[in-house]
Structure prediction request, 114 residues.
Amino acid sequence: MSGLLNIIANIIAIILTLIGIFFFIVGTVGILRLPDFYCRTHAATKCDTLGAGSILLAVAVYEKFSFDAFKAIALVVLVMLTSPTTGHAIARAAYRRGLVIWRKKSPELLEEAE
Prediction:
């Protein structure tokens, strides 16, 4: 029975790791493709929170009931609390400093400017 539980734990750890990798890739593409600071900050904090959280949960599942699993869960809680808070604080500071929010220019406005 212990062998079956190890296989199930490994499968869950692999799935959580793949979820984390997916969020890191999507977040990286978002950082590269999004138009302004605020959108990029949003992508970076989502990537960090969900990607790192999933991978750390995979480590906790893989380590089962050990002290390392406890440390990984503590890190998950830390990442889930600090990453969105720091992203919000950075975006708010940029807004207060006057960093302009990106607006898509419509074709009508471009024709009027000419």
Remarks:
- The first helix runs from residue 2 to 33.
- The mean pLDDT is 89.
- The two ends are 75 Å apart (CA to CA).
